[in-house]
Amino acid sequence: MDHFLYRNGELYAEDVPVSDIAASVGTPFYLYSTATLTRHFQLFDQALDGMDHMVCYAMKAASNQAILKTLADLGAGMDVVSGGEYARAKAAGVSGDRIVFSGVGKTRAEIRQALEGGIRQFNVESEPEMRVISEVATALGKTAPITVRVNPDVDAKTHAKIATGKSENKFGIPISKARAVYAEAAALPGIEVIGIDVHIGSQLTDLEPYELAYRKVAELTEQLRADGHTIKRLDLGGGLGIPYARSNEAPPLPQDYGALIKRTVGHLGCEIEIEPGRLIAGNAGILVSRVIYVKQGEGRQFLILDSAMNDLIRPAMYDAYHDIVPVVEAAPGVEQQPFDIVGPVCESGDTFAKNRMMPPLQAGDLVAFRSAGAYGAVMSSEYNTRPLVPEVLAKGDQFAVIRKRPDFDEIINRDTIPPWL
Ligand SMILES: *Cc1c(COP(=O)(O)O)cnc(C)c1O
Description:
Lyase, Ornithine Decarboxylase, Chain A, domain 1, TIM Barrel, 2 domains, nine-stranded mixed β-sheet, eight-stranded parallel beta barrel, 12 helices, 25% strand, globular, binds pyridoxal-5'-phosphate
């Protein structure tokens, strides 16, 4: 459920007409709903009710300061995957003891940054990384709390580019090697083992892979405890999918996911962390765009928009589907027509949809890409020197620009000319 609904035939973000924001900000822009962000965070939080838990928002999904602050104010921790994200989380007011650091390539500088600024735990992804964390911590006179990310070798049944829990993926250590790795961890001076981490992929539309993975984690918890390790925290990752095509998809609900967690690992008495990103931000954001031209091609009609693959890369990168809807609803009974919906970038891959049935649209009309809040703005670029797409946050009858569109001078002045030119 989200808060982008039609009223009297016009799309609203909460209580604000989307066309009012377009008139004020210009297109294209990302638009988020505070109420939807809040609702989705609370669904997860409530799903784990009765267990000691923390919902650590995977901020790579959408990392604007205003979004982070909205979620942090509700009690979210943060899952970060770079020094930049760590700095963003701190800047949004999140304390270090609510930040977990994931990712396969943490550098010494990033590890030092997190140890100095405070960290809830590092989710370790390899033995060499574990040794470096120990070294950096020892040099600082600190002890780094860690979990080891295990790769449970389960098929997440999602798109190959976002599956992370099979043995061929670069993530985590094979669960079969876990006991040896924990034995080494226990002997390292700069780290303190506190638990286990697992994250099997993104956009999971079925709970079964979680069931398989979490059962393996439960078994491992008991083995490691028998080996003498302290396992008091389980980080169970993120990845719950969202409906991108509303007409025919019904991914699992957070409360069913919460029940699964209780069923599979609830008896272990561990503190539970989860790291949802997409499900919190995905349907809380839309990308609003204007039709520049309707172009008649050979045997097809192109809808040329002012947004492009640099603004929303998911269709080009993952063959992702997004519902695209007119901001002003067509009159009832109007016949739909097939359109190829494209952007202005000079690549054939800059195609959002082919043969998409839409009501008749004209130059100047507004459309909205639904479910664009996660992995949208954060993956945008200035390819073709198209200014970074702005972001807007709505709350009730208010809205605010939370990242403004840079002007051409700002973009050009980021470059510097060497002295010999
Ligand atoms: C990307 C990622 C997540 C979030 O995945 P979603 O599909 O957005 O919920 C959580 N944990 C880790 C380690 C990740 O890399």
